[in-house]
Amino acid sequence: MTHAETLSRPLSLPCGAILPNRLAKAAMTEGLADGTNTANARFETLYRRWGAGGAGLLITGNVQIDRWHLERAGNIAIEGQQGRAATDALARMASAAKAHGSKVIMQLSHAGRQTQKMINPTPMAPSNVPLAIKGRFGIPIPMSEAQIDAAIAGFVNAAQVARDTGFDGVQIHAAHGYLISQFLSPLSNRRRDGWGGDLPGRARFLLDVVKQVRATCPAPFILSVKLNSADFQTGGFSEEDSARVAAWLAAAGCDLLEVSGGNYEQPRMFDFERKDPLASTRRASTMAREAYFLNFVPKLRAASADLPIMVTGGFRSAEAMASALRRDGIDVIGLARPLILDPNAARALLDGTRDRLDSLDAPQPLGPGLFGPASPISALRDLNGWATVGWQFEQIYALADGRDPNLSLSALRALLAYDKTEKRAARALVRDPIKE
Hints:
Keywords: Flavoprotein, Oxidoreductase
Order of helices and strands: HEEEHEEHEEEHEHHHEHEHHEHEHHHH
Pfam family, one: Oxidored_FMN
Shape: globular
Number of domains: 1
Protein name: 2,4-dienoyl-CoA reductase
Organism: Roseovarius marisflavi
CATH architecture: Alpha-Beta Barrel
Domain NADH:flavin oxidoreductase/NADH oxidase N-terminal: 18-348
Number of strands: 13
């Protein structure tokens, strides 16, 4: 069997939904919404383009369930009852994504303490543990039992809206340091009630969300979860914790588990690191096989043998992708940055016309050496890393506007433009939009 044939095999999920192939467009934050945090024509253009690109599964960027707890001011948010204009825009987005046969699922999230100050200076979180990042984030307020119940209900409500507007499923975002990930980690969850303490207590929020979504949105609606393999922080959510939670998720009705890792304090999902005792744990063998989190899969398989697994991050060659599917227990390959540079990259892999994808990292804005991405000064490493992320955002904006990516854009210009865009979007937020 050729690599292309391996990637082209359909996958039947536990809920009965069938993915037409093994490639997925992983979630990437879009930042395209206006001050009302509703979908618009730019989302429709973007997902029509990605849908035509051949990936069997498209996962949206994080849709927030609370407008006071956004990851970015330009997020879509589904909070409470939605007006006709908002649901019609979501339906057009879903229809555009599915027009060429892809399945599309909506990623649902709540930023918790990772809400920026310019959006909410006092966000809710499991405990009042602030991020160890100066300036951008405030000290969080511990959630009451009533607020926890309301947040769980918010995830369920958003899932129902996704189902009713034509999405094939949802992905519950329990990774990258957002609210559910904060509940899972003993570093950010210091509660001593039934929502904290040992792992069952810390996992209760996630499991309640999954069980209630599954009860209200039965098969063939796809229920996926994005879970950290680890936080990569001493004393945080560990691989052993993750494997146990994965087994509980499988029993609760999860159809697809996406493996990731890191958070804002240790952003391994973006493939750059801050100083930390566990920051250099990526093994050379894993790097050679391309995927960032592949070495965790055997532990995951031992804990939940039948749960379909998706791994995102680092895959570039058809050979490595096919090998992961054949030998490493992976069911779905997640692609992100390569689909920004070439929205048709998945189709090229599937028809065998390409055997390797590009993932152009933006030119570093501060130069090599001391000022570059390997600088011994963590602030400069961060600046280089976030400039690259800003460069990727600028390319998403181009696709959403019907243009091709601007590969000549410098990372410094992209970073400045991104910062300006985010501040303008935050100022434009309408806190209580009129519901039509």
